[in-house]
Amino acid sequence: MAKFRVRVSTGEACGAGTWDKVSVSLVGTEGESALLPLDRLGREFSAGAEEDFEVTLPQDVGQVLLLRAHKTLPAQPLLCPPAPDAWFCRWFQLELPQGAALRFPCYQWLEGAGHLVLREGTAKVSWADRHPTLQQQRQKELEVRRAMYSWKNYIQGWPQCLDQMTVKELDLNIKYSVVKNANFYLKAKSAFIELKFKGLLDRTGLWRSLREMRRMFNFHRTPAAEYIYEHWQEDAFFASQFLNGLNPVLIRRCHSLPENFPVTDAMVAPVLGPETTLQAELERGSLFLVDHAILSDIHTNVLNGKPQFSAAPMTLLYQCPGHGPLLPLAIQLSQTPGPNSPIFLPSDDKWDWLLAKTWVRYAEFSVHEALTHLLHAHLLPEVFAMATLRQLPHCHPLFKSTGLGIEGFSELIKRNMTQLSYTDLCLPEDIQARGVEDIPGYYYRDDGMQIWGMPSSLDTREALVKYLTMVIFTCSARHAAVSAGQFDSCVWMPNLPSTMQLPPPTSKGKARPEGFIATLPSVNVTCDVIITLWMLSKEPGDRRPLGTYPDEHFIEEAPKQSIATFQNHLAQISRAIRERNQTLPLPYTYLDPPLIENSVSI
Fold first, then answer.
1. Which annotated residues bind Ca(2+) 2 (predicted)?
2. Most-buried pick from 14, 120, 150, 156 (CB within 10 A)?
3. Domains located in the chain, CATH noted
């Protein structure tokens, strides 16, 4: 018989401790031990505790391969059945009489009575498991995972997702923490109560004026939202949002004008000046296009009993010489030119031009929420997460208030799924394909490329590194870039309307302030969207910034050093971003590493 110590660490989260009884058994090259109770005077396994237990191993099991952790309910009178009690275990450590201590990372919840099978923390790929017991454990773990996390088609044409009907059915290990869940719902409740008390939440009519819309700032205000309110009508700010706004992934260099966008030199001369032409600027590479063609003939919603409208605009932009601003040159609100689809210009009447720009902003909202945000930053990361849970064991080293509604969003996702490619998700290739490598003031590109920061050809190690970088970037930095600023961009609703109540204009000279307001979303729809985007933009506690890994799955020095190097690199990027932002009238903060979540967390 041999005596040794077992050290156990319990998580610090609310409810992580347990009153249940815990024991372990050891599986070695010579067999498996009996259960070894971890028991002493007083309560064990309190939240945040690290505790030592001395146990006696009755027989030699040889080299230790696995540790089984068993949790049983405490004895209770029959008339008082024990309540379910979950326990979050961080790790076990065996301090044997001979040899180095063995750490068994866990970082899992164990609900009710049951057991977990844990491996010593050295990372191993499948071919490195030489012992049959380890090979069998790896296979069994994956079989359990695949049964627990199975695929389903939520909507035909969408990416597959987890086969669960409600959040309540989710495994505790992939749910929000208690604190995060409580913060999220308290935040939502407070927002609804505030806007209901102000009489806005249930008001289905139009806003009385642009000035009245300013009341939404009393709900919550940010420096970015204040800046947007002051500058939303300016052409330079309108254009800048294609670079550093919510949807910085559509703008591309224009090498030739589309045949269905018949812009002429005379139309754009007031902006370009008399010394140049469209052809000359195309050859110089100073023209850019944002095309929302994917919105053509999309299904629209019915809100407050009224049908809503959509458009599929094209926007031509001009990069002024030197480091001058990016400016809009022309906007066409459909994909079919003709007398009922005029090309709107900066030289048009103020309200004609403002209305055309607002239709483009509405198109940006629709494409952003359905594709850039929902599909690319949520549905695809769920695929990555599901594949990881089903294929990689622990030891592996690696809509309510919108103009389109669920049917329109669904159709957009189906259309985009037929076009989406792997390179679209790889930032360096995406930037190159869109021809925006050198456009100035593109902070999404500049900050994103620093965070991407990995070498890039899936049959080589380099290809694997590139693929994993894409997954990590998509689930962290890209999601932050397209999610964190939703409230900032939308709280001044005319900057990013979620729907339009009147059809796109078919002629010029008819737009008026009252017609502009009548086109915008109603009061209650505005409130619904702003509350939703406020909740989705702000992390509800329990944050884990990029590069922060409280779950210590790796025990070797090499990966620990890699993590430290990565953290130092992120700190350098953050310092550079914050220094640059001090010189900007509107700081670009969404890709500052401490503000980026490790994963899609909301």
1. 39
2. 120
3. 2-37+51-72+85-120+129-148 (2.60.60.20)
